[in-house]
């Protein structure tokens, strides 16, 4: 088969964000756009000749087209084998499982995660290394640098491969194996969790679950694992059929976008447990009957109850959370006598800690939770972890959370997002706030006094790499925190995220709504950052 070397010129702005390159579908459809980025990945990772690549995506619009192109480029660039999920489908955690299990050189995952899909939606691509985790900042910076000087890419001309049937095909010297997208993942879940106990919980008839797949990739995984293997109540997976445009929805599992599930769970006859996942299946939202579990609390509760769960009963090596995530898990770590690490936002920062056996569990406020079983966050894994705990403790979700707060205190927490705002205004807000930092320490606002104000930097304890400018932190003497960050995953304008946290040890105040409890902090945020003025908005677009 003829290898073509196609001349090309750089595109501006092929800079990977928090998690890979995410742009509108139309941007990706420009001739050479995808090819330039893929060649830049290959030129960065270099030593792959003859080795195996894993390839798949969340099934959004343009997934199959991109897969055909990448296969032909992999053949032209000298990979030995590509493992592709059937129909081009692989959830992000399943891709991580497969990279690790088959000791692949790396993988390419096609997803824009929780961003909307379809012809007018977003598309995305990211590279995962041989450990199954997102490429390090060093690699993504090199990829970006390559995109700025690219002059050619290599591709073969060949007919498209049939992605719909399991089997092995040749593309020149490249072997393409179409594999079941679910088997390896389901097998690992059975190894980690007590499926018999969870099955018994469902069998009792006294426990019902509702899982919202949001018309995204986890529909097929949830049906196999929850319905077939665990025999959960019938029709418990809603929005189960993966669609190229996610049914026109926004596949982001939070209280705003997972409205179908929220309606079911905040109802008189609600099931006992509710959960949702995002576009590529790595995020999770956990709900009880009329009860929302914040992702930060969820991480802390998994850590505190890990000893009850088959795959984790040997104990935790340590835990980690991203900086804006609440300190709830820190309290559990202190109780257990294990290390707790604070990393910047982005799952890639957990990779070194996991590889060095420093941590077992990690998580983020952005609905991401995971463990050392893979190197990605894992939506269904978190759901199964909760189910395993519920099967052992036989209490409601709300009781488990309230008992946790009673023991450790409650880290009252919320995130306010201002989406799609003018980028210049967003940057100006950050700049103006940063300028005030030297004068902030000691400043008082009624009951609150500022203890520190800084721009978070992270020195990786394993490879000593330094990541600067990872979010503005304002800490108060009572342990409360206000954090300001601009999202690195949006594709239009800017998204301002404001993270609010306070600590409440008094059980008699634990029933308070988080928005009510955090109101004083929100007022301080407005005074310091003039949010309404810079965003032009009276209130956030999303509150979680
Ligand atoms: C990605 C990253 C996460 C991060 C999240 C939000 O998740 O993998 O680590 O917390 O984005 O990032 P930001 O606040 O910059 O938008 P996903 O699920 O989109 O891949």
Which stretches of 5+ consecutive residues score pLDDT under 50? none
Number of helices: 18
Rounded average pLDDT = 95
- Mind telling me the C-alpha Rg? 23 Å
CATH architecture of the largest domain: 3-Layer(aba) Sandwich
Question: How many structural domains can be distinguished in the coordinates?
Answer: 3
Folded structure, characterized:
The protein contains 18 helices and 27 strands. By secondary structure, the chain is of the alpha/beta class. The chain folds into three domains: 3-181, Alpha-D-Glucose-1,6-Bisphosphate, subunit A, domain 3 (Alpha-D-Glucose-1,6-Bisphosphate, Chain A, domain 3, 3-Layer(aba) Sandwich), CATH 3.40.120; 185-408, Alpha-D-Glucose-1,6-Bisphosphate, Chain A, domain 3 (3-Layer(aba) Sandwich); 410-543, TATA-Binding Protein, CATH 3.30.310. It has a seven-stranded mixed sheet with strand order 2-6-5-3-4-9-8, sandwiched between helices. Strands 20-21-24-25-26-19-27 form a seven-stranded antiparallel sheet. Strands 11-10-12-13-14 form a five-stranded mixed sheet, with helices on both faces. Helix 2 (33-45) crosses helix 3. The structure holds 1,6-di-O-phosphono-alpha-D-glucopyranose (G16).
